[in-house]
Amino acid sequence: MKNKGLIITTIIFFLTVNTAYYWEGKLGLFAFPAFLILFAIYLALGVALVMQLYLAIKEKLVNKRRYILIGFLTFVLILTYFKPFGIIDFDELEGENVLVAQREGAANCMTTFKLKNDFTFKELNVCFGVSEVNGTYKISNDTIYFESVKRGKQEDIRYKFAIIEELEHYTENPFALKLFKDKNDTIGFNYYIMKNNLKINPKKK
To answer: What does each of the 205 residues of the chain score in pLDDT, given as a tens digit?
Structure first.
């Protein structure tokens, strides 16, 4: 069958893009090269679509199979353009986020920390690669304790517990999720809270 390779490549590309939620955090420093490869494939599929349109016109629009191929390529390319992170929000399917906190570092690095309503958490770090930390948590009084922590390819510090703190000086977000390495850690590390549905009284700084 003609164009079988093109069809298979398009299907694999579409499935890879739409399942990135499950594999991107496991690649570490290899995540960005993987995304560059996907972008190159996207451009190559765009070129293939132009070629298919040219051949369809050359054949005077009599090849119905080519119509199907053109329609399929167009569908995948347009959908990927408008939904580059996939058409399904797997994060929502895994449960409601009861707390979302973020921290931006140097070189536009971004770390996002999410607590789910099923007492699981996930920290996604995007900085010259993509990596993640996940596990479970429990709440005791005003403290959040992290348990069963699993780390990916390029993780920094494994935090033991956290509190919600009211900031003394702020521009947009008055509260922060302050994470601590252990009981001897008196400094902590702030993630600025974007969403909070936890019933925890924040501590004043």
So the answer is: 468 889 999 999 999 999 988 888 777 778 788 899 999 999 999 999 999 999 988 887 778 888 889 999 999 999 999 998 888 888 888 889 999 999 887 667 888 999 999 999 998 888 777 888 889 999 998 899 998 888 765 555 578 999 999 887 666 678 899 999 888 888 888 889 999 998 887 776 6
CATH fold label, 91-204: Lipocalin (2.40.128)
Q: Which helix (H) or strand (E) holds 58?
A: helix 31-58
Nearest-angstrom CA–CA distance, 112 and 181: 17
| Sequence-ordered alpha helix ranges (H) in 63-157 | 64-82, 90-93
Domain boundaries along the sequence of the chain: 4-82, 91-204
Tokens of 48: 């293939």
Backbone angle region of 61, left / alpha / beta, with phi > 0 → left and psi within -120 to 50 → alpha: left
Residues 6+ apart with CB under 8 A from 38: 13, 16, 17
How far, CA to CA in Å, does 72 sit from each of 7, 39, 53, 79, 188? Answer: 8, 18, 12, 11, 51
